């Protein structure tokens, strides 16, 4: 059921880590309020399932997927460029992607990912997708 919210309806939201947990609930609720969503993902099957669930629960078809491993600066740049190419304003950014691992992991950029860390904080320059200078619109 769609319950629009005059502050969110029609706004563009980008959510990292939206295929699970708090990010998924946030995505459902923003979609329910009428936002257009862009969800970043690593696992395509999980992302497709999440998108279908959000659309079904909310009757909001404006849910889109952007592929990126946010532990990679190269992929952060690529997903930011992909979003910018759409020409849409970004009203809401939810940096929610995280990583919980028990082994030492090196990113493709040669940066060690610590055992529990936000995935969109790779530690060497870009603190988040938001720092890719995606123009925000205050409305």
Question: What features would you describe in this structure?
Answer:
The chain is 29% helix and 20% strand. With 139 residues, it is of the alpha/beta class. The strands form three sheets. Strands 3-2-1-4 form a four-stranded parallel β-sheet, with helices on both faces. The longest helix is centred in the middle third of the chain and has 15 residues, at 44-58. Mean pLDDT is 80; it is low at 116-129 and 135-139.
Query: How far from one another are the termini?
Result: 26 Å
Mean pLDDT: 80
Number of helices: 3
Query: Structural class given helices, strands, pairing?
Result: alpha/beta
Helix-strand pattern: EHEHEHEEEEE
What Rg, in angstroms, do the CA atoms define? 15 Å
Annotation keywords:
single chain, 139 residues, alpha/beta, 29% helix, two-stranded antiparallel ribbon
Summarize this entry quickly.
29% of the residues lie in helices and 20% in strands. The chain is an alpha/beta fold and 139 residues long. The strands form 3 sheets. A 4-stranded parallel β-sheet has the order 3-2-1-4, sandwiched between helices.
Note the topology.
Elements: E1 12-15, H1 21-32, E2 36-41, H2 44-58, E3 63-67, H3 73-85, E4 92-94, E5 98-100, E6 105-106, E7 112-113, E8 116-118
Parallel strand pairs: 1-2, 1-4, 2-3
Antiparallel strand pairs: 5-8, 6-7
């Amino acid at each position: 059921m769609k319950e629009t919210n005059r502050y969110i309806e029609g706004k563009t939201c980008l959510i990292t880590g939206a295929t699970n947990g708090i990010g998924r609930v946030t995505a459902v609720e923003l979609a329910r309020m009428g936002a257009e969503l862009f969800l970043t993902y690593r696992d395509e099957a999980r992302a497709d399932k999440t998108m279908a669930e959000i659309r079904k629960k909310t009757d909001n078809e404006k849910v889109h997927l952007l592929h990126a491993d946010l532990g990679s600066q190269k992929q952060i740049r690529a997903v930011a460029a992909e979003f910018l190419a759409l020409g849409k304003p970004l009203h809401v950014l939810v940096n929610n992607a995280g990583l919980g691992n028990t082994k030492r992991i090196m990113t493709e950029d040669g940066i060690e990912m610590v055992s529990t860390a936000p995935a969109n904080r790779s530690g060497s320059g870009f603190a988040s997708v938001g720092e890719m200078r995606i123009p925000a619109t205050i409305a």
